[in-house]
Prior knowledge:
It is built from 17 helices and 14 strands. With 518 residues, it is of the alpha/beta class. The strands form two sheets. The protein has an eleven-stranded mixed beta sheet with strand order 3-4-6-8-7-9-10-11-12-13-14, sandwiched between helices. β9, α5 and β10 form a beta-alpha-beta unit.
Amino acid sequence: xxxxxxxxxxxxxxxxxxxxxxxxxxxxxxxxxxxxxxxxxxxxxxxxxxxxxxxxxxxxxxxxxxxxxxxxxxxxxxxxxxxxxxxxxxxxxxxxxxxxxxxxxxxxxxxxxxxxxxxxxxxxxxxxxxxxxxxxxxxxxxxxxxxxxxxxxxxxxxxxxxxxxxxxxxxxxxxxxxxxxxxxxxxxxxxxxxxxxxxxxxxxxxxxxxxxxxxxxxxxxxxxxxxxxxxxxxxxxxxxxxxxxxxxxxxxxxxxxxxxxxxxxxxxxxxxxxxxxxxxxxxxxxxxxxxxxxxxxxxxxxxxxxxxxxxxxxxxxxxxxxxxxxxxxxxxxxxxxxxxxxxxxxxxxxxxxxxxxxxxxxxxxxxxxxxxxxxxxxxxxxxxxxxxxxxxxxxxxxxxxxxxxxxxxxxxxxxxxxxxxxxxxxxxxxxxxxxxxxxxxxxxxxxxxxxxxxxxxxxxxxxxxxxxxxxxxxxxxxxxxxxxxxxxxxxxxxxxxxxxxxxxxxxxxxxxxxxxxx
Length: 518
């Protein structure tokens, strides 16, 4: 059935909303050695394996940005595996982020860039460190097409006791090149992340972190990357726990070699590189490659390779994955933002009642009658809300519960549902036609300082604090204040400002129905 396909799905909302409020300024790489303009604060000069770096401090946390974790993949190194960064003399300025990795223009979750010299990471640490802080490595989302690590301000997580690392990694055509002429390039974005994880193991202690207690955390496309690390033998030993947010490994995280090659062939033809393919592709300007690849793709590493022998779903099913404690969750209303995005896009409009049935038939095909019976229009406030409910349950809730059950068979697993009703809306966008509630990405406004969203209301600060402490607590111990999820469980922990207790997730999202159709 169509509803079982992999979905990181940010691209739908971005396509709809991106033109409303965001520009397309191309990013450039900052200077690597700018002199400090203020006296050095205690703890802001740190020695790494590449040399000394100077960051900043604000009283509660120390921040270091733009640290190279791998050599620039430029020239002949384009589409080559990451290599160690060269050491530098003196003290490197680490007060500004590195250049964003190459990505198309115009989407709010991304930063337009043509840079290939982009393999940099950022470290935010508590001001007071004893060398035993849990380390959280954040992998940003954006469909593996967009985004930067520094977009997500992690000060709140660090202030609660974690050393937080984020990184840029190769995206889109530059990170997931499937042409057989460019061998071994199908999962370079994942390999970049592995290089960053090796850097973390080697350097975390210098920032006050426990290099033996590293939690890998990702949302949407970043969460699917975590699925990849669970499945990849080359990620074994690089992390100790995992957090999966809005990324059901059971239906995503990889693609077939045939799909990757077909996509690469389309790009190769568009840029005129059918002959002398590898050399020709390496000579092409980044802008030309980005244009040929397109703005609304969702690349994935290829399964059946040394990097990823098994697709994540098969790895979890058979137990052949990196077994670490996992915190996995989904937002209760994932697709509300997707539907609202289409309604608010230029030329868009709220779905009319008479459009609901045709839309369901187009989406669910032979199962449409059953879906319409289970999700009647009259049971929802609008056609858009009815459509969002069906799509959320089919695309997100069902495969996330499947993923948790697969994980729980082999490794300690905690599952949650982010269920807050009163979430911030996007900055600068028109008011939505219905409440977005716990839409895709909504939880990120509580974990990070993220300019994409309006501020969380002051009265929700206790809820935000509890979320932050729960995530840092899991990174520290692998446990939460709710019970471990078991293989056959249907109940998960519901997280909202009004409620923090167990909910019948399978009933609420009609799990049995979706398992019975298709």
